[in-house]
Amino acid sequence: MGGILVGKAEMRTYAVSMHRDIQRVLISEAEIHQRLDELAGQIMVDFADDELVVVALLKGALVFVADMVRRLPVKLSIEFMSVASYHGGKESSGSLVYFDRDLPDVAGRKVLLVDDILDTGLTLSEVMQRLLDAGAAEVKCCVLLEKKKAREVEMNADYAAFMIEDEFVVGYGLDYQGRYRNLPYVGVFGGKMG
Ligand code: IMP
Ligand code: MG
After folding, report:
1. Is 158 a catalytic residue?
2. Contacts of 32 (CB under 8 A, 6+ apart)
3. Cα 118 to middle of ligand 2, angstroms
4. How far is the CA of 118 from the centre of ligand 1 (A)?
5. 4-13 pLDDT tens trace
6. Is 92's C-beta closer than 6 angstroms to any atom of ligand 1?
7. Which residues keep their CB under 5 angstroms from ion ligand 2?
8. d(Cα 162, Cα 178) in Å, to the nearest integer?
9. How does DSSP classify residue 150?
10. pLDDT in tens, 42-90
């Protein structure tokens, strides 16, 4: 076993630096977990006897999907697709970048597509269409957050854990310039943008 990597003083610094850019906690860790129990129950009603492919979009859905799949006691497999629409900033670029060479094999299978947030709708609508074009029997879409705003394309989430106002949030998988994904709650970002 290795020695102690981080001393108490450094631990305190990490804790402070992680939280100090958060203007306020929007959804606490406890609220998230309680709601995920309910959401999983809803999904189980719809998919009770089915074999599922869960397709999660990296990196944002990483934390959410890990907590969700442990609440879904059906035979499922987990696939990931790595896509980006934000390019590190605050505004959506309007076009998707795919980092994978191949799509997961979804032909003839029921898919639960999981992402962190439904914002303009561009990401989910485009990925959903790709999966359907690849022969998926059905694609249902599950997000942690849904922003209350007009979508740029028509897109509804079949399952959404929380509706939020149109504010920029981080934590529980959501990032600002690659950071803050490891916050255990969802918070309104209050750090410097740019
Ligand atoms: P859409 O394609 O505009 O619906 O955006 C989806 C992607 O934008 C998400 O997967 C996030 O990566 C990112 N995004 C949208 N809103 C936020 C936010 O408030 N905080 C962090 N990322 C966001
Ligand atoms: Mg994302």
Report:
1. no
2. 67, 144, 161, 172, 185, 186
3. 10
4. 7
5. 565 666 666 6
6. yes
7. 60
8. 22
9. -
10. 999 998 878 899 999 999 999 999 999 999 999 999 999 999 886 445 5
